[in-house]
Each structure stands twice: as C-alpha cells, then as structure tokens.
Amino acid sequence: MAVKQLSVFIENKHGRLSEAIKGIAESEVNIRALSIGDSTDYGIVRMIVSDLEKARNLLGENVLSKVTSVVAVKMDDRGGALYKILKTLEDAQINLMYTYAFTSNKEFGAFVVLRVNDVETTEKLLADKGFELVTDEEISN
Question: What's the pLDDT tens digit per position in 107-119?
Fold first, then answer.
C-alpha cells in the first residue's frame, strides 16, 4: 500500500527547478504534493505525482532521480491531527526521517507523508491504531 515518491536532486542555482520540471508542467502529469529541502549546493525535490513513470521520463536522463516508498496517512484538517500520528510513531519507537503534509478539498481533508525505515511495520501499526492509510491512486484522484 506504500505510496511511491519521486525525489529529484537539483543543483541549487537560479532557474534549475523550473528547468527540471518543465516537461512535467507541459504534460498531463499532476504534482499532487511537493517538498523541497535544500543545502548550499543542491536541493532535493520530493514529489508525489499522478503518473510516476511518465514524470520520471519527462525529467530526462540529465536529472538524477530516485523512487522511494513512503507512508501516506489521511488526517483531519484541524489542529492536533498531525500530533496524534507523530505520537503513535514515537510511542512505537519508529524513527521518522522526514515528513510533509498537504491538504485536499474539504471532503478529503489533509494528508501527511512519512518517510520511515520500515514502511510495512509503520503501515501495520497505523492501521491497527485506526489511522486511514492512503494509496497512490487515492492521492492521484
């Protein structure tokens, strides 16, 4: 059930981000969630897209990219919702490497993306605790 995330490594220089995702922008691939972490020399753009393989092909061979399995969890779009998920992971001693969240329309609420060492264990824990996991298809729709 893990969601596939596309990570793109981009030199931290003016115009590189728009240059890297130009092909995605011109296609019918939808970027559903995006997070950028940077350092002095490069940035890591993490994306969940509607068509992973097409997006990766559109980036071209000159852009270093990687596909990673992450856990996506639906949560209420209100204060405290994220804390409940994070506290559950903490109590189970699951290490969280990074996270980012995004909202959808009011009908679907908000989502949090979790990068953990053990996706399968994390998914089982969260499902057992009553959290609703989200699939690639659900995010893309």
Answer: 667 899 999 999 9
Token pair in block for residue 68: 């990673």
| CB-based contacts of 78-87 (< 8 A; 24+ apart in sequence) | 81/110, 82/112, 85/112, 85/114, 85/126, 85/131
Angstrom CA distances, 92 to 1, 3, 75, 126, stand at: 20, 21, 19, 10
70-135: which CATH architecture?
2-Layer Sandwich (3.30)
Instruction: Give yes or no for residue 17 having a pLDDT over 70.
Output: yes
Domain ranges of the chain: 3-69, 70-135
Cα(96)–Cα(9) distance, integer angstroms = 21
Question: What are phi and psi for residue 108, nearest 5 degrees?
Answer: -100, -15
Domain 3-69 fold is: VC0802-like (3.30.2130)
The model's pLDDT over 19-34, given as tens digits with 9 standing for 90+, comes to 888 888 889 899 999 9
29/116 Cα distance (integer angstroms): 26
Do 3-69 and 70-135 have matching folds? Answer: no
Task: Identify the three-state secondary structure at position 106.
Answer: coil
